[in-house]
Design brief:
With 147 residues, the protein is an alpha/beta fold. 38% of the residues lie in helices and 18% in strands. The structure holds 1,3,4-trihydroxy-5-OXO-cyclohexanecarboxylic acid.
């Protein structure tokens, strides 16, 4: 069975109360439930994780090898700083969707740079919580097309 790791980075545990004008009112628990519902619809499995530490995110990407068919990654602020996450993605050779709730290109200039983008299969940003089920569908569609 196809299985995806949905990995969330720093401060995303505070969704719902964190800058709701930017990130909305949906909590990470709500998003997790949305992801499980979409996975059930599509007949696939997901593991949903959040961690505030860069090293723990690197470890989670490594651990996905041989277990998951792809990764959906909202790396939060590490998107804009982390060569380590970029290298981890390159090292495991799994398809990765870069995901953001906000449209990072419509925000401060420092958010326009992504270390994940060059090693990502695709990018979804700006659709709020709805981006998560969209990412599951996109990654599933791509794997199905590859056979
Ligand atoms: C974010 C965008 C990042 O720039 C920010 O640091 C986050 C959240 C998003 O989902 O919109 O923590 O990844």
């Amino acid at each position: 069975m196809i299985s995806f790791l949905i990995l969330n980075g720093p401060n995303l545990n505070l969704l719902g109360t964190r800058q709701p004008e930017v990130y909305g009112h949906t909590t990470l628990k709500d998003i997790e439930a949305m992801c499980h519902a979409k996975a059930k619809d599509l007949g696939l499995q997901i593991t949903f994780e959040q961690n505030n530490s860069e090293g723990a995110l690197v470890d989670a990407i490594h651990a996905a090898r041989g277990v998951h068919s792809g990764i959906i990654l909202n790396a939060g602020a590490y998107t804009h700083t982390s060569v380590a996450l970029m290298d981890a993605i390159s090292s495991v050779a799994l398809p990765v969707v870069e995901l953001h709730l906000s449209n990072i290109h419509a925000r401060e200039e420092f958010r326009h740079r992504s270390y994940i983008a060059p090693v990502a299969t695709g990018i979804i940003c700006g659709f709020g919580a709805a981006g998560y089920p969209l990412a599951i569908e996109a990654l599933n569609g791509q794997l199905a097309a590859q056979g």
